[in-house]
Write a structure and sequence with these properties.
about 160 residues; mainly alpha; 2 domains; about 60% helix; rod-shaped
């Protein structure tokens, strides 16, 4: 299988995260890359791990990864050093990438929370409208009849739709 840009990026990030001070030419480094998985900073034998954290490592043999690095050593070494400087950790993300991901996650959670609140308000408003239009003085314990039920249901659906947009 040919190497892709994604493979080279993974290789450089892996080396930066797990071998920041060197040993990039050691055969053992590449044996570890394909035979071990790294979970929360702890090395675990792939046979006992439930799922490798780096499935991309299985695309090539340890010898192939090693040869790839040796052949492109000048360029790949520079990329590894740059990733070390950018603070790549065992997630293979730089400090900046981790901060951006955290920011996006928080923004998404805030948006979801706002949508939930809007939906709750719409449902409360629809419930209020239903009480206003209900026969029996707004006693919703009694079933609504005829046009009253339809109007209240339509209003609730309309408000719910608006809140979820």
């Amino acid at each position: 299988m040919d190497y892709t840009g994604e493979d080279d990026d993974f290789l450089c990030r892996y080396l930066a995260a797990h071998h920041p001070s060197g040993s990039w030419h050691s055969r053992k480094t590449y044996e570890n890359l394909v035979s071990c998985t790294y979970i929360a900073g702890a090395r675990t034998d792939a046979k006992t791990a439930s799922a490798p954290e780096y499935p991309i490592a299985a695309r090539h043999s340890s010898q192939s990864w090693h040869e790839r690095f040796k052949k492109g050593s000048a360029l790949l070494s520079k990329r590894v050093v740059r990733f070390v400087q950018q603070g790549v950790n065992d997630t293979l993300k730089t400090k900046e990438e981790r901060a951006k991901a955290k920011e996006l996650k928080e923004a998404k959670e805030a948006q979801e929370k706002a949508q939930e609140k809007a939906l709750e308000k719409a449902q409360e408003k629809a419930q209020g409208k239903a009480q206003e239009t209900a026969p029996n003085g707004g006693d919703l314990g009694q079933p609504l009849h005829g046009d009253h039920q339809t109007a209240a249901q339509r209003e609730g659906a309309r408000l719910t739709e608006i809140a979820t947009k």
